[in-house]
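Fold this sequence, please.
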Amino acid sequence: MKDFKIDNKGSKTVFRNRWMERLTRTHFAVPVTLYYVIGLGCLGYSAGLPVIDLASDWWLFPVGLFSFTLLEYFIHRFVFHFHTASEFEEKLQYYMHGIHHEFPRDKDRLVMPPVMSVVIAFLFWGIFRFTFGVQGWILFGGFISGYSTYLVIHYALHAMRPPANFLKYLWKHHSLHHYSEKGAAYAVSMPLWDYVFGTMPDVKVVHDKTRQPSF
């Protein structure tokens, strides 16, 4: 990904058509609410199935939630930050993710528009349902709830002040990715994966010395 002059106060117009432009912008509460409702709905639906016993199968929900953190890491690292080999790929990467790096505090672009995420969510539901049968409902419920949790965390990291407690580490970790080294610190909701896969920055950077935004 190319280096950008980071603008912590600005935004960018992608489409001249105002309706198309509007589709690229989403208030974070919309998908967060939608996918938490879907996640709980899947859990409730599972409870009504005769072949499901939530008393013994409940653990599938947190497994699904935790599995999203791993997928989040891989998508961020290998899809959003894929190696570009042409001008077309550079433009594709920019509009897919680079624009977020250039304008990291553009609140309308901190979540994927539902017009896209709903299709992707449906595909993952099919994968879980086909692979795990009826238990896939519980796994997918946890998985999609994990996505909503990620959205809440990612929005908070860019739009809110870091808290004065242990959660501040999430702000510090994500700031390394945005303001110090884009080729590292890919994990957002579960920094553990950067340690597991060796993608922590090689050089220790003190958080308050990075070019992070002032809140």
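The chain has nine helices and no strands. The first helix runs from residue 18 to 23.
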